[in-house]
Structure formats: C-alpha cells, structure tokens
Amino acid sequence: QVQLVESGGGLVQPGGSLRLSCAASGGTLDYYAIGWFRQAPGKEREGVSCISSRGASTYYADSVKGRFTISRDNAENTVYLQMNSLKPEDTAVYYCAADRDYRALVAGRGPDYWGQGTQVTVSS
Predict the structure, then answer these.
(1) What share of the chain has pLDDT > 90, as a percent?
(2) Helix and strand element counts for the chain (H, E)
(3) I need a surface site. Which of 11, 50, 111, 114 has the fewest CB within 10 A?
C-alpha cells in the first residue's frame, strides 16, 4: 500500500514561486507514473502535470505550460512540481496521484493512490 504525502503549499504573491513535493511511503514509486491534480472551490478537479515512471514522458495542461515543471527523484521516492510565475487562478488544493498506467493517469482515469492535498493560494 503506497501512501502519498504532499507538502510545499502556502500563500504566495502573484508572480511568485512554490515547489510542491509528493513523498511516498509504504512502497517504491519506481513503477508508478505520478500526476499532479488540483481543485479550486466550486470547480471540478483538473489534471495539471504527469510524469512517467522513469521520467521519460511528461504532460502539462495548457494553463501551466512554460510555468510549471514536474520532476522525480526515484532514489528519494519523491516527485516535485516547481511552480513559477504563479497566478491567482492557480489557487487550489493540489493533489498528487500514482498509477501504473501513465496514459490512464494523463486521462485522469482512476489513479491507484491519492495524497491528501496541499493548499496553494496565490494572492496579493
């Protein structure tokens, strides 16, 4: 049973940066694609970015392309989301998720595991 724990959220001014971490325990992430999703109040959950198990493939939603970067350190069993040039519309709870099927994860279909989420608030 893999457990995912997000960290790194907080309050930041527009134009600022944050780095989110998704740390795994109870198992290795080596065989899992990892995705970041977010949900703002009153809105549906949306996929933000995904990375394949070995990092060879990445996906970004159009709304974050050029601003967010996903990476992983399998030795540390951790996946990161570097968020730059943050905008108020990036405000949401950010969740990481793990699935053995990268394409399914990109499509947002039933990840095997979810983290508990971390709040990101972009406001002046």
Answers:
(1) 90
(2) 1, 11
(3) 11
